[in-house]
Design a protein that fits this description.
five-stranded mixed sheet, two-stranded antiparallel ribbon, 48% helix, 153 residues, single chain, 7 strands, alpha+beta, 2 domains
């Protein structure tokens, strides 16, 4: 690893925040488009068509509202994640596994930094629960497979 673990975690944190801001802006834009579509929907003589269109718009709005709430929760949770070095799998730890690097933070998915992929997952993910509090060199069982923790930062 080229960077110190705390510098790397700060880089991951920054990239995660940028990604969340982008996602939030995208959802807000989609909500605005839905509002404009809703405002443009005129009740015409085909009442059923109007009602179906309204219902589809309402369902889409609810889905986008849930996404927006989820991204905002992740933003808030990210602010509480420890950047300190860790010696065991816990919230804030960066874990090297045979399948790659995992940062226990928020369930945002894959982020790339300098050509290396990092998977961002919550402390509640099944994989992390299977490895919780293990130290480098120790193994846990995940989906009936032995998973060795190679390093913890």
């Amino acid at each position: 690893m080229n960077e110190t673990s705390s510098t790397l975690k700060i880089s991951l944190w920054t990239k995660a925040q940028e990604t969340l801001v982008t996602h939030i802006k995208e959802v807000q834009y989609q909500l605005l488009e839905l509002q404009e579509a809703s405002d443009g929907e005129d009740k015409n003589s085909a009442g059923d068509k109007y009602e179906v269109g309204r219902e589809i718009i309402n369902q889409s709005r609810e889905l986008l509202d849930k996404q927006l709430e989820s991204y905002r929760k992740m933003q808030h949770l990210l602010k509480t994640v420890s950047m300190s070095d860790a010696d065991k799998v816990q919230e804030g730890s960066l874990v090297k596994l045979p399948l790659g690097y995992i940062w226990v933070s928020v369930p945002l998915g894959k982020i790339e930094l300098e050509g290396v992929s990092y998977q961002l997952v919550s402390k509640d993910s099944p994989l992390i629960q299977a490895l919780w509090e293990l130290k480098a060199g120790e193994s846990g069982t995940f989906r009936d497979k032995k998973m060795k923790v190679e390093e913890v930062y």
